[in-house]
Design a protein that fits this description.
Length: 314
């Protein structure tokens, strides 16, 4: 599947610069505080992951961003201005629940939605062909949607979200039901949109996938933002560092004699050492060499799943 860097946008070929901002969003349903002063900013040209446990407020935050639900307090801004309904009409939303007209063919479904979105007729046919190629459905364009597998229907859903060339993409569990090949293909499509300067926010419970795709994450728990930032910086700031060492010829329990570390795991193949905050990994490596021949080692930062667990548990 060929994935170009993205479709042309006017004369420049790029979306205008500017962030999507949530500013102190609060929302209650009855006696339940769903969002409690939620604030974050999504820069253009980045894929940002919106994370959180079930019931944390992720979907409510997305619905407020899109104007589906009005907040009790706070404001959504786009490029420095309040996000009015007319502005939001140029955005794209892919909900977790599929909203497809399954009796239609794939092509007719996209054509119908394109007309609803006021895509010019002379542009729409070309646009649909582009989308079908990007999501790998050119050969199924004239099949009814009900004849497609769940994963293929998910691809149609993404194509429908992109049909009007939106400035902002909000995607709720876009990879649900997809096999690894389809995940890779649609990841390329989403990154191509960000590369064109669009604003991309997506929610997913697949944390390893979030780690591979996202430069930045926002983590919500109990209606509040508990973690927000660039993934690499959050990993560095966590203070969690693990030194992985493979040692030949060492005596039993050698790692217990090291200073400045906690032994996480040790067997015949490798030893995992948690470095204390002030411990120099090179100093530890010098100590390790006194116990045997080091034939493999590596310094590992925490994965997004570890950051998630720690932020939610605190």
């Amino acid at each position: 599947m060929r994935v170009p860097p993205g479709p042309p946008r006017g004369q420049s070929g790029r979306a205008d610069a500017g962030s999507l901002e949530a500013d102190r969003l609060s929302l209650t349903f009855g006696d339940r505080q769903v969002l409690d002063g939620v604030s974050f900013s999504i820069p253009p040209g980045e894929v940002v992951g919106l994370l959180g446990p079930n019931g944390a407020g992720k979907t409510s935050a997305m619905r407020v961003l899109l104007g589906i639900v009005d907040p009790d307090d706070g404001e959504v801004r786009w490029r420095g201005r309040p996000a009015a309904e007319g502005i939001r009409s140029h955005w794209g939303y892919m909900p977790q629940e599929r909203g497809l007209y399954v009796k239609m063919t794939v092509r007719d479904h996209l054509r119908f939605l394109g007309r609803l979105r006021d895509v010019r007729r002379d542009r729409l046919t070309t646009r649909i062909d582009e989308l079908l190629e990007w999501v790998g459905l050119s050969a199924r364009a004239d099949d009814k949607i009900e004849q497609l597998s769940g994963g293929m229907q998910q691809r149609v859903q993404l194509a429908a979200t992109l049909v009007h060339e939106p400035d902002v993409l909000v995607l709720d569990e876009p990879f649900s039901g997809l096999d690894p090949v389809a995940v890779e293909q649609l990841s390329e499509v989403i990154h191509a949109q960000a590369a064109e300067g669009r604003t991309v926010l997506f929610s997913s419970h697949q944390l390893d996938l979030v780690e591979d795709m996202c430069e930045r994450i926002v983590l919500i728990d109990h209606g509040s933002v508990v973690l927000d930032g660039v993934v690499s910086a959050l990993k560095q700031a966590s203070g969690q560092r693990t030194l992985r060492v493979a040692l030949a010829g060492a005596v039993e329990s050698w790692a217990d004699q090291l200073d400045g570390v906690t032994v996480l795991h040790s067997d015949a193949s490798e030893t995992l050492l948690h470095l204390h905050p002030t411990t120099d990994p090179l100093m530890v490596l010098d100590q390790v060499r006194t116990f045997g021949e080091v034939y493999d080692f590596g310094l590992e930062l925490p994965r997004v799943s570890q950051l998630f667990r720690e932020a939610v548990d605190t």
